[in-house]
Every structure is written in structure tokens, then in C-alpha cells.
Amino acid sequence: MQKEINLKVLFDVIKRHIWLIFIITGITAMASGLLSFISEEPSAVYQSSTSILLNSNENDSTSTLEVILRDRTVLSSVITELGLHQTTNKLNEQITFIDQGGKIVKIAVQDTNPELAADIANTTAAIFIKQIGNILGIYDTRIVSEALVSNLPISTKEGGSLVKNIMLGVAAGIVVGIGIVLFLDSLDDSIQSENEIEQLLELQVIGSVSKITKVNVQNKPGERLRKR
Asked: Which fold has domain 43-156?
């Protein structure tokens, strides 16, 4: 027998199994929230910086110096020397090149590990000084101040929003719940409507029996007569 599919039928199916959808939605929401809370705890971000005095002339623009600093050769050398397990793109995002005016530039590095932030800043500065000497012929460049370990975080790196993840879990639970309900209903071959009876027997329905409820059973015929 082919079931009749329309919006009213689908709504009735969902209404009959709304409790199952609520249970599935609750499970997915709690699982999503718990996973977000465990795996995405916010972590503090620390910054260390080193200042460099350049023995350069006016033709050596800071933009050129920054290009050299962010070159793959410099970044790869830093990764190799410190034994970092990350890409050059990731390291590039951690480094900030600051022109402090005159011949002073600053290399600032951010990381969740304060000791590593200082090590990256100092190592990057040392390799940068060698590289500008090889490329631009700028020698006698000095480090004014080395990067020190800072125990004060500058910000907090947030993980995924807990509320957002819970809402995504609720949405996923509703979709999955409705899908399961409709799938279970598709496996049910029982007759659900008068139209299905007419299609199956090819006869017109001339009457129907009302559904028996507790109210109908409790209201005995004698009691109904007395109420009239």
C-alpha cells in the first residue's frame, strides 16, 4: 500500500512522536555543549618583543625590511632552529613588525606559551639581522633589547562559543529527530486515514468510530442522563 503524503499527515506524524524528537534534541544539545566545554577551553595569549637598531639609510624602507622578515627563508630557519611543529604561515601570523621611527624596529611575537614567545622573538631577530646583511648589505645592526618572558597575558584566545555550539546541537537534534520519526513512520504499514482505506478497498467510507478515551469510559450512560 502506498501511503498518502501531505503536510497534514507529516504534521500528525511529528506530533505523535514529538517526545522522541525532544529526547534526541536534548541528547545532541548536551553532547555538543559538553564537547565544547571540554575541548575548547580558552587559553591565555602572551607577547614578547625585541627592539633592533638598524644601521641603514633612507633608501631602505621599512616595508622592504618587513618583506625580508616574513620571507619563507627566515621563517623556515626559525622553525628549524627552535624545532617548532608548525607551518611558516602559522608562524607568520604570530609575528608583528613595528616601525618605531628612526632606525628602530620592533619584532613582537604572540603565543600561548610565554617562554616560546620570547624564544621566537629573539631567534627571529637574530636570523633577520643576518638576512638583511646578506641581501641589503646592512651590517653593524644591533639588538637594543632582547625579548623577555612575560607572565601577564595580553588577551584570551577564545574557543568556539559554548552557546553557539549548543544551539547547533539543538538544530541538529531537531533535524535528526524528525528524520528518524519520518523513517519509522515509513516502516509502519498500518492504516492511518480514511483516504487510505478508500484507496485500499476501493470503497467509500460511510462512517467512523470515535476514539475511546478515559473521559468517555468514566462518563457512564446513567451519569450522562443525570447531567442532562
From this structure: Alpha-Beta Plaits (3.30.70)
